[in-house]
Amino acid sequence: MKRLVLTFDDGPDPIYTRKILDILKDENIKASFFVVAKNALQYPELIERMKNEGHCIALHSLEHRHAFLCGYGYTKYDFSKSLELLHNMDCNIRYYRPPWGVRNIFTKIFVKKHNLQMVLWDVMVGDWKAGNTPEILANKIEKKIFDGAIICLHDGCEKYGGVKGSPFNTIDALKIAIPKLKEEGYNFVTVEEFLNHA
User: Fold this and answer.
1) pLDDT value for 197
2) What confidence score (pLDDT) does residue 198 get?
């Protein structure tokens, strides 16, 4: 059975994340959401829905700061405060993806200290950029994937440099790509399912 891991960074967002969750529910597939802890705190109902619908919730930092701009003290605070906020929402966090995939010399220390596993990606299609249509994004996804690929998309990138409204293209691209990928025999699994049954 061919597997794909669908992941979303930067949310939750009250508009985009909800629409993505609707699609995943309609398609009966599970995904992994790498959430920004301060956004999670703002929209606890979306975190609750993710849990109730069987998605994996993972960490994407406290407030999406670039690791190169953060020293030891802030990096330590970033991890501890994020995990505190998410644990208070009954999330058992086991996976971490740094903003932009960037790590500093302290990142590894705190990943290890908090018993997290760092998860990056295999496929990224620039869904936060201008000039993408849903068709272009769906086509990029279909061309780049392979059995076992971890796909990184975005459900809340506007705050962090993404083009305003760009997640709407991501949402419509999913409507095109998911049925096609299912037809091709791909099964969608969470990061947790993938890593535990590699």
Assistant:
1) 79
2) 59
